[in-house]
């Protein structure tokens, strides 16, 4: 949505705010020969000039006797008094203002916006300008508390203290700075009650978190106020839905964007019948949108995005016939869109992404012929894109990604000649991509990723796309890029995303013509060729992200590169059949944050020069043949959150320097030849660790109780080592295994797209990528652990897999094991457990694998509920004292056929059922056979076909027998 008020709102607000201002211009001698600014006012301005650092000579005109002719100065045409001081956009610097400004006693207009008054506070003496009607101190970098003395400006109509943050660019770009710390603070807003004539108030980015009276003070503003902007003010108090009295009834613009307001839709807003601009985005508003919103018929812009509204959009929305922009994105709205929206013909922006809307794309969309931006992405829409979409000839942005759309991409899209963005990625669309897309000469971004496209993408698809800089194509079906070997595209791409699209086997030479690449992702594109060394080196020197995984790339281009300029952020070359030693030139790209070389054939040691990559957040060399010791230099990479050394040939110990990796979340050194005591230091030094994998090594010793101080651990795999001792009772303290924190900040970080582990919590090696945050398991199998299974483990309700097989555990299986309600895999086999199997196991509905074999368990095997689906004798094999189904051995007191009821009544009922069953099936077979014979007798065509089929089958049998006999005799 547009982040500025519409032209209508601006005109309305400014006319109302400035209508009573009496600004003059410097009068000419001819008009008023006896008027000029007074000496005291001129000296006051010169003192001001002395306090300012003017790097760009903005004040170069401040010379001569008549200050009314100076830049930014306005005087009353009759009296000559200075009434206007306008130094906006002067790029002036200062750390204080002289009180001599008070000599400008007739000042009505003061604008110091868009300057750099770093560390300067708002002077209290500004409250002494009794005639001031306009005060603008926005984008000045002034700081401290706003003085209450401003409440003395009783004639003030316009007050703007907005966007004083640690950094700002152009004034119009304020929406980029939501996260910047505020420099200005207000501790109480009661002084606002003195501004009895105020029409425009903008406190955006002023920190109001210390004001408990902010809303009551706002409500005490004069009912003539027109514009109220409180964007990003750190407001967290709930807004009352109903108020005993409402002063705010004349607003035409209300902006409460980017706060933490938590309440239903504020009904007091509906009292402002002239409201034209309403922005409540990025708060915590919830509940439904009231039908009465339709009474605000003057609304031109509505932005309610990124809140928690739910339910359906009210039909009354169709009454807002002046609406030009509607943003309802990122909520929990559901159901179908109301037909009344088809009446909103002035709409230019309709943004509905990130909800749960269902049904077809509504045909009434075709009535909104003024639309320039249509976003319906990230919903549950199905069906196809309607042909009527071609009526929206003003459309520049069409985003329909992340839905369940099917069918072909309609060629009517090609009628949208002004289209700049076309995004239909991540749907279920099929068929061929229409060639006419190549005629959309204004297209800049084209996203056709993750559908089921078929056929070919040719040069005709791009023939007139001279402005294209973003291209994303991938297919779940059979799609190939078919262009000439000498093709030169008409565009220069910055972002190239091609996945599961057949581009190879030869290197696509058209890539050599693209000299502005920032990101290139080409995954599984069937390239099996030597990439030109000069192109690859050039790519590494200009791109931020290079991801060429799952291709067959020749190794020569890596070994011949000596140096690459800094700047690259991410490099992923996994599963590309690369071999040889670690490419040393990578150590010089000190800007790297992600390096993925997994699933290749690299050998030798990891070089110590990796310590140069101090910005590195993720390092993945999994499944190679790296050997030697793990260098302690890796411990200097203090920004690492993801380190995967899995399945190599590393030996020696885990470096003590890893204690320095305090941001580490994933550490996987499984399937190596490491030999070391279990490192207890991981607990204190790695507080963020969530995934810790040491399996298939030679770690030894006891599991320290210090591990229990890792409440965030959600995957712990120490399987196939030489660990002894007991399982610590305090393992029940793993709070991440009690309730998985799915909103953890780590999973929103840059490295999340590259995280992958291969592990076997369920007995099979599985690959985890985007679903890592949902995994919770403990695997201590095949060690030398003794003692009992702690009952405290049964508190881990989010645990999905528990593997304790192949140890020396004794005692009973805890009766409360049924509390592990999320458990999918349980393996306690090959231990020394005894006693009965707890009946509570039947309460675990998610259990799909169970192995209790080769213990000393006894008693009846529990049945019922979900256990009925796990009838596999191997589950309980090797427990000779177990009885009952599915084991053939009956329990004491059971009959030889435990599945047959013991009582005579049950047997008689069963016999009676058998009698009736056979009594019914016999006549049925007889009638069917007689009917078949009758058909053969009376229907000639059936009879011929039947006996012809019999003859053919008989002939084939005879021939086959003859061939077999001859072969046997030979």
Automatic annotation (TrEMBL):
It is found in: Cell membrane. The keyword Transcription regulation does not apply. SMART domains: LRR_SD22, LRR_TYP. The chain crosses the membrane at residues 915-939. Its main location: membrane. GO terms for cellular component: plasma membrane. Pfam families: LRR_1 (PF00560), LRR_14 (PF23598), LRR_8 (PF13855), LRRNT_2 (PF08263). InterPro entries: Leu-rich_rpt, Leu-rich_rpt_typical-subtyp, LRR_dom_sf, LRR_N_plant-typ, LRR_R13L4/SHOC2-like, RLP23-like. Keywords: Cell membrane, Glycoprotein, Leucine-rich repeat, Membrane, Repeat, Signal, Transmembrane, Transmembrane helix. Residues 39-76 form the Leucine-rich repeat-containing N-terminal plant-type domain. Residues 293-423 form the Disease resistance R13L4/SHOC-2-like LRR domain. One of its GO terms (biological process) is response to other organism. It is a single-pass type I membrane protein. The keyword NADP does not apply. Belongs to the RLP family. PANTHER family: LRR RECEPTOR-LIKE KINASE, RECEPTOR LIKE PROTEIN 30-LIKE. This is Leucine-rich repeat-containing N-terminal plant-type domain-containing protein. It comes from Daucus carota subsp. sativus (Carrot).
